[in-house]
Design brief:
CATH topology: Arc Repressor Mutant, subunit A
CATH architecture: Orthogonal Bundle
Largest sheet: 2 strands, antiparallel
Protein name: Transcriptional regulator, HxlR family
Structural class: alpha+beta
Strand content: 15-25%
CATH class: Mainly Alpha
Shape: elongated
Radius of gyration: 17 Å
Number of strands: 2
Order of helices and strands: HEEHH
């Protein structure tokens, strides 16, 4: 399932797949400068909304443990 999602993200130009030769086999995924970076902006906005929600609902201690505030 994760492989399928990564393939889709690669097809849409959000993620870049880099395959390395040799043993052990290794593949690296990274966000693309074009579409991936734009998606990152949206994810950061959603994270900020989630952090505000958690603070408003008494869950700031969880955020502190994770280093988010």
């Amino acid at each position: 399932m994760l492989i399928e999602q990564l393939k889709e993200l690669t097809e849409y130009g959000i993620v870049k797949c880099t395959e390395y030769e040799g043993y052990p086999l290794r593949v690296e995924y990274s966000i693309t400068p074009e579409r991936g970076k734009k998606m990152l902006d949206a994810v950061l906005i959603m994270q900020a909304i989630g952090i505000d929600y958690m603070k408003e609902n008494g869950m700031a201690d969880i955020l502190k443990c994770k280093g988010l505030i």
